[in-house]
Amino acid sequence: LFSAIELAPRDPILGLNEAFNADPRTDKVNLGVGVYFNEAGKIPLMKAVATAEQLHQQAQAARGYLPIEGVPSYSSAVQKQLFGADSGLLAKGLVVTAQSIGGTGALKLGADFIRTLDSSGVVAISNPSWENHRALFTAAGYQVQDYRYYDPASHGLDLAGMLADLEALPERSVLVLHACCHNPTGVDLTPADWAQVIALVERKQHIAFLDIAYQGFGDGIEEDAVAVRMFADSGLNFFVSSSFSKSFSFYGERVGALSVVSSSAQEAERVLSQVKRVIRTNYSNPPTHGATIVSTVLNTPELNAMWQQELAEMRNRIKSMRELMVQQLKDKGARQDFSFVTGQCGMFSYSGLSADQVERLRAEFGIYAVSTGRICVAALNLNNINAVTDAIVAVSGT
Ligand code: LMR
């Protein structure tokens, strides 16, 4: 049966973890995967999470099946975080949310559901985008195309190119849009840019699918929701995939959500019934632990405040690492000007390093990054940053 089967290539991001773990060097640094490490180089267990977990352990709750769409109090907390506690859409019952297996699971649920709708069958993703977007939508049966996004010359957004490419797509194409902290470039749209995109989406009847996996890592929970809120105000139907992997440091718990905005409460009910069908035929219903903990934290004012404080510390530490990295590269006489790194937001820097330079970082210095030059700034700390900037200077020249 398997004699002719080919070996699949390693995943471009998670495959780096496999290679990193197998590397015997003790001074190795993993700047590949999008994971926040604290100053001590560890993935933190947030205090708000640990407190909620203690409460649940004491309660000794049974583990029955969840409803197909997940923990209800979790879904309502997700909706408030995305759309705002005072959102008119929520008051009118226009939004339905299903708990998902991480943000990736939310994308797949949405992809499978949209296949049942009247779409062009084309999905457009930014160039560049998170590596798994293309693979996921291709596997779900779509034709995946790029739209221009990042301008390497300015290290900024190519808005004109983006709008032209979105315009050229067939009507009713699915647009995957990074709502904040664009992965991998860290370059986001301004509210004025979003207004232009929204007008185009409306005119071309495109189907917007906002991916928001890093809410809170840009400027704050509310600030980072601006694109979602603007789409909500537009009156369009759209999709949102969200994740707590990063903001709760909850990677292995796989806690995400798919939210869909409909035009009426009746429509929303029918949409949810179809999303539930997709869930039931894939994995039946979601796991209890992670979403219950997130719900407890978000719905308990003291824990919510504690979590927001911890998230702000993570965000600020990443910003300070950006500044230190740029300063060190300058002080060490790097040939290239890396000052653009401080203007990027979220966990990543799209460093401009070539695939060959990234390979040299790995081979010669034990520093792992994605071959596109994406490095995870959230994995830098005062103990490893010197070695990292030395190595970047060594491979990129002085
Ligand atoms: C990343 O981009 O590194 C993260 O989103 C992890 C992943 O699943 O790829």
TrEMBL record:
GO process terms (BP): L-phenylalanine biosynthetic process from chorismate via phenylpyruvate
Name the cofactor(s).
pyridoxal 5'-phosphate
Sorted alphabetically, which keywords does the UniProt record give? Aminotransferase, Coiled coil, Pyridoxal phosphate, Transferase
**UniProt keyword DNA repair, yes or no:** no
User: GO CC terms for this protein?
Assistant: cytosol
The record's annotation in Pfam families points to:
Aminotran_1_2 (PF00155)
Question: Does the record bear Nuclease in its keywords?
Answer: no
Molecular function in Gene Ontology: identical protein binding; L-tyrosine-2-oxoglutarate transaminase activity; pyridoxal phosphate binding
EC number of this enzyme = 2.6.1.-
Q: Which residues form the Aminotransferase class I/classII large domain?
A: 26-392
Share what the entry says about its subunit structure, partners included.
Homodimer.
What does the sequence similarity comment in the record state about its family?
A: Belongs to the class-I pyridoxal-phosphate-dependent aminotransferase family.
Protein name (database record):
Aminotransferase
